[in-house]
Fold this protein.
Amino acid sequence: MISPAVATRLVFLMVGFSVASWAPLVPVVKSRGAGMGEAELGLILLCLGLGSLIAMPLSGGWAARFGCRRVISVAASVVCLVMPALGAFTAPVSIGAALLFFGAGIGTLDVVMNIQASLVEQEEGRPMMSGFHGLYSVGGIFGAGVASVLLGLKIAPAGLMLLMAVGSALIIFVARPGLLTQGGSSESPVFAFPKGMVLLIGFMCFVMFLSEGSTLDWSGVLLSERHRMNPSQAGWGYAAFASTMSLGRLTGDRIVARLGGRAILVGGGLLAAVGFMIAAVAPNGWAAIVGFGLVGLGASNVVPVLFTAAGKQNQMPPNLAIAAITTMGYAGILVGPALIGFLARGIGLAPTLAVVAGLIATVPLFAGRILRATQGAG
């Protein structure tokens, strides 16, 4: 029988694979929609985030009541059933509705796979969270690559997404026997507002996910407009970020075991903050790319350590705490880049990235307080 640790890795891989399979399809969806402009596309894409934000706060309670195995299986089934519709539908309303369900399934998986990961990590008695999150990154790279190749082979979007859905379903089918039948305290409520230390950890997740969203949406703008780099080279900022983050997470379990959670929060937070400052004040585009690479390396293991801490704190049931910090972190990805856009309009993009660096610098300030209050998470 497959072990819980391997099953957890497979779920992280499947979620990254499924989400990334949608990304190359976005330009196709826009081109097929009659009269669809950027504003209409933005509203449609918002449905994905809305579905996730609706499901995430409830997912911890579902895991406690029904167990990780059952909830992950149902959520993965929803994702796999909806994926072909994303390639087949052409009407904006239909695509938006499909994305709403797709987002709800992905949001549920995001929460419950981290609950499963926390339980497995505690059972194994060693750091494992970074490796789990690293498999999400690997799944994302693999999913985007496969989808892009299939598009290049002129496979119709509906057929492409059907193939990707079959791949995702096979991964979950293999993983299912190793998924845990429990999902936290069965006596916990379905939903609870974050409080105390969980609220602080959630804010730290918000900041770190905001940095990821900022790099994804704004690094190319900085490189092309401030440093006049060719659009074909402007993507190197996020590529550097994603590469160093993947490398950091795939090697992170050994690093966390050797250095401890506090060193990761302090050192990683400072390195990410310095990286953003370098990107903000860099004299040329290549120096800014180095800065974004440092952001990815520094941030890579901060969020896994925060998830571990949320699973060990005793102010809320762990399943609800993980649901809360996942929701707050995801909100950072959704609303953070927009907030940065508004701020950049007033003070400029480079100074705004310096503000992001200042926010990240709060993570080391609270590292000791977080880990002291989470029963030796560091």
